Amino acid sequence: MISETNIFSYRPYWAKRLLPSPVLPMSRDEMEQLGWDSCDIILVTGDAYVDHPSFGMAVIGRLLEAQGFRVGIISQPDWTSAEDFKQLGRPNLFFGVTAGNMDSMVNRYTSDRRIRSDDAYTPDGKGGKRPDRSVIVYSQRCREAYKNVPLIIGGIEASLRRMAHYDYWSDKIRRSVLIDAKADMLLYGNAERAIVKVAHHIASGKAVNEIRDIRGAAFILKQSPSDWVELDSTELDEPKGQSAHPNPYQFENKCNNNDVAQSKREVPVVIHNIREVQANLRNKIVVRLPSYEKVKEDPVLYAHASRVFHLETNPGNARPLIQAYGNREIWINPPPVPLSSKELDRVFELPYTRQPHSSYGSDKIPAYDMIRFSINIMRGCFGGCTFCSITEHEGRIIQNRSEDSIIREVEAIRDTTPGFTGTISDLGGPTANMWNLHCKDEKIESACRRLSCVYPDICKHMHTDQKPLIELYRRARSVKGIKRVLIASGLRYDLAVRTPKYVKELVTHHVGGYLKIAPEHTEDAPLSYMMKPGIGTYDQFKQMFEKFSKEAGKEQYLIPYFISSHPGSSDKDVLNLALWLKSNNFRLDQVQNFLPSPMAIATAMYHSGKNPLKRIHRKGGDVFTAKGGRQRRIHKAFLRYHDPSNWPILREALKAMGRADLIGNGKKHLVPAWQPRNSTPEKNSRRVTKKQRQSSRRFRK
Predict the structure, then answer these.
(1) How far, in Å, CA of 151 to CA of 566, rounded?
(2) Cβ neighbours of residue 333 under 8 Å, at least 6 residues apart?
(3) For residue 332, which of 321, 317, 323, 324 has the smallest C-alpha distance?
(4) Going by C-beta distance under 8 Å and a sequence separation of 6 or more, which residues neighbour residue 685?
(5) What is the average pLDDT across 668-685?
(6) Where are the alpha helices (DSSP H) in 514-570?
(7) 181 and 119 Cβ atoms separated by less than 8 Å
(8) Interval 236-257 mean pLDDT
(9) Average pLDDT over every residue of 505-524
């Protein structure tokens, strides 16, 4: 792996002698109490400010503070004017803007595009405290408040919108958020390494538009640097089955009045074969993706761009990407080098208060209540599930905290967190059981372009022994004052079954009656589009779970999660899933209807009808997706076959599919032929209201 400077080895900024502060200030009064006349860096976030390492803005703020910078926080400002963005004064170095721990559109809308009534990252869970597309709106207000202050955007919303992307809520391709936010730079992924470099560069007097060598950064250019060689992305992975393929970097004459004429642009040399490049130029290759104008009009090119992008995500071999937007370019540097365990330990052990800011008083912040007794032990995920954005944001290489650091946090929770009664609610991360798992060979890892280390099978080079995790669990629960350590993060059961001792340890000591896992589907076709293991692996894990639960003398249950309407899931597939649920006596309380999040591979499938997991073909290779509102309702209804409110639409669907034989009152039937009037959910039915009868008539129409 490429070596990088330790993020804690930089010479501290001069204000180091004034730090650390008990809590990062959110007002002028707090600044005055600290003896500050100004802030060096002001961070704007769509979340409530919780000084805890599970909240990204707290991590970035405390890390910059450790570098010697005075950092202020503007949390959930009123975005209707620039006044709230002036409350801490003009920052000496730059504004940092994020939507928060979640994409603002995912936070505010359901998968059916309905506005949510609550927000887990807001005091008392109140909704409406952040705008749609928060990064863009906050950035505009920062510019209004202080026009010439450098503006850097980051966090998951910016990270997943760093290039042209399909936006589910507007049902169109949107430009890179860099263009719309008019930001100077975008830092994607877990940006600790990048933000530290940028802060020290700007503090040394370097202009933000001169900083171009930061991994994990994206920025706008007027034209490509002349000393780089461009590689046509269609030569890397040419979409097949088309004649007279349009040049993906053909510049459009769709410029504004202020744009430079296209004819005057100096276009760098473009190569059409990687073998043409001399060895001494290989480190100066940039991959040109099809332009925004092209992918906006051509879904096949969008799928192609998505495929190429995902093949360029390994920090060990990724090349920069470039994409044209009229007369401008978005340049995306390769992903950041993962933090070492020593660096990650120090990040998690910065002087957090581990509590919400005192200005919230007694108001509850649901997201904080959920995690205040939990511990994040790692980052990243090499699963590569196509519907998930973890790998696009955090990467596929696992970043591990040391065992000693994790135990120190267990002790810190025990000693300092109000309300702690002895139970650690979770010891995990993006996944429960990838801690300390890695490729056996660093050279192979650096050269690998696989999208998943566990699909279609677990890679032979992947280290899967989970005995170190067993030892961590045992050590954590042996800490004085700790009664229980639960595991609540998502479990990769295909990895778990490789180490039966791990499953036994988990089931015997770390399950609180129920264990949630996510097979997502039962049918091979949709599972292949998800890059998830077959249902047989779930059955294998279930047998182990039940065996070890019985040996421990415990009555425990698996709670499986499934996704409806995922690309590649046909009506027949979802019917078979419903029959499997019924045969296993599962009655799901909640079902996640597929939500196409920006830049995910499954989102490219949803938009384009093509499969970026394979070479794109214009003819053939189409992926079916339930898109219409009614069809999505049908797919979701199949997974809740037991709910009487779904029976009318399911009867119609079954008749249309030629499966009326599944309508009846016997055990072999999926839904009854009758509709109950007086019954409750506990009895597998509920009273049909006037509104439901009207809804049923709409479905029939």
Answers:
(1) 37
(2) 213, 214, 215, 216, 217, 218, 320
(3) 321
(4) 644, 676, 679
(5) 69
(6) 524-530, 535-551
(7) no
(8) 50
(9) 96
What is the reported pLDDT for 590? 83
For 489-493, what is the mean pLDDT?
94
Virtual torsion, Cα 98, 333, 350, 6, nearest 10 deg = -170
DSSP helix/strand/coil, 514: strand
Residue 573: pLDDT over 60: yes
CB-CB contact of 558 with 538 (8 Å)? no
- Dist CA 118 CA 14 (whole Å): 42
| Beta pairing class for 165-167 and 71-75 | unpaired
**Is the per-residue pLDDT at 683 higher than 50?**
no
Domain 1-211 sits in CATH at 3.40.50.280
Interatomic CA distance for residues 515 and 549, integer angstroms: 11
- In the block, residue with structure tokens 């009273």: 687
Query: Are 230 and 98 a contacting pair, CB within 8 Å?
Result: no
Integer Cα distance of 200 and 67 in angstroms: 9
pLDDT digits (tens, 9 = 90+) for 308-354: 999 999 999 999 999 999 999 999 999 999 999 999 999 999 999 99
Domain residue ranges of the chain, discontinuous segments joined by +:
1-211, 224-327
577 φ/ψ sector (left φ>0, alpha ψ -120 to 50, else beta): alpha
Is 439 in contact with 462 (CB distance < 8 Å)? yes
Cα-based distances in Å from 8 to 11, 143, 255: 9, 31, 45
Residues 557, 514 contacting (CB under 8 angstroms): yes
241-246 long-range Cβ contacts below 8 angstroms, 24+ apart: 241/617, 241/618, 241/619, 241/620, 242/300, 242/618, 246/294, 246/298, 246/301
CB 400 within 8 A of CB 341: yes
Q: Is the pLDDT confidence value at 263 over 60?
A: no
With beta carbons less than 8 A apart as the criterion, state whether 519 and 532 touch.
Answer: yes
pLDDT of amino acid 226: 86
Task: Flag whether pLDDT at 280 surpasses 80.
Answer: no
Contacts of 81 (CB under 8 A, 6+ apart): 141
374 has a pLDDT exceeding 80: yes
Contact between 203 and 317 under an 8 Å Cβ cutoff? The reply is: no
Q: Which two tokens stand for residue 449?
A: 């372009």
3-state DSSP call for residue 403?
A: helix
For CA atoms 651, 657, 658, 659, the dihedral sign is negative
- State whether residue 173 is helix, strand or coil: strand
Check residue 274 and give its pLDDT. Answer: 55
Q: Give CA–CA dist 462/442, Å, rounded.
A: 11
**How high is the pLDDT of residue 281?**
67
Residue-wise pLDDT for 120-172, tens only, equals 999 999 999 999 999 999 999 999 999 999 999 999 999 999 999 999 999 99
Residue 420 — pLDDT band, cuts 50, 70, 90? very high
Inter-axis angle of helices 690-700 and 647-656, nearest 10:
20
